[in-house]
Amino acid sequence: MRKLSQPLRKEVKTRANWERFGLLIIRKVCTGLEQGALFALRYAFSMNSEPSGKAALVLANGLVFEGIGFGAQSCAIGEAVFATGMTGCIETLTDPSYYGQIIAQTFPLVGNYGIIPSDYESSKIHAKAYIVRDPCDQPSNFRCQKTLDQFLKENGVPGLCGIDTRALTKVLREAGVMNAMLVSGDSPEAQEAFAALKDDKKKAALLEKIKAYKIQNAVQSVSLDADKIEKSADQVFAESAQYRAVPVRSDGTKVNSQEEAMKAGRGKKVVLWDFGAKANIRRELLKRGLEVKTVKSGASAAEILALNPDGIMLSNGPGDPAENVGIIEELKKILDKKIPLFGICLGHQILALAKGAKTSKLKYGHRGANQPVKRLSTGRVYISSQNHGYAVEAQSLPACAKETFVNTNDQTNEGVAYTDCPAFSVQFHPEAASGPLDTSFLFDEFVDLINGKR
Question: What would the pLDDT profile of 92-121 be if each residue is shown by its tens digit?
Answer without folding.
Answer: 999 999 999 999 999 999 999 999 999 999
